[in-house]
Design brief:
The protein is mostly helical. About 80% of the residues lie in helices and about 0% in strands. The protein has 3 helices and no strands.
């Protein structure tokens, strides 16, 4: 059985889950606005919303990546490299 997470780790994971859900919800709202503005013929608003969606998609990608790091950090916390092993790869 895996050891339990600390309360700080659980809080960080819960925050990232909530952030991803709300962020994705906001993206869906903007996507709806993008479609309606393009159907109405408002291309300027459509272009701005498309740019925002691209940036928001990048933010969502990094948010999911951070969540995966937080979830996997329990296994990686015992594998922190020591100070002597960092300098062993030097080539002269």
């Amino acid at each position: 059985m895996a050891p339990s997470r600390s309360s700080k780790e659980r809080l960080a994971i819960g925050f990232m889950l909530a952030w991803i859900v709300f962020w994705a919800g906001g993206m869906l709202i903007v996507l709806y606005g993008l479609v309606t503005s393009l159907l109405a013929g408002n291309t300027t608003a459509g272009i701005l919303m498309a740019i925002w969606l691209g940036a928001a998609g990048l933010g969502l990608f990094f948010g999911v990546r951070k969540l995966r790091i937080l979830i996997g950090s329990q296994n990686e916390s015992s594998k922190v490299p020591s100070a002597t092993s960092i300098g062993d790869d030097k080539t002269e």
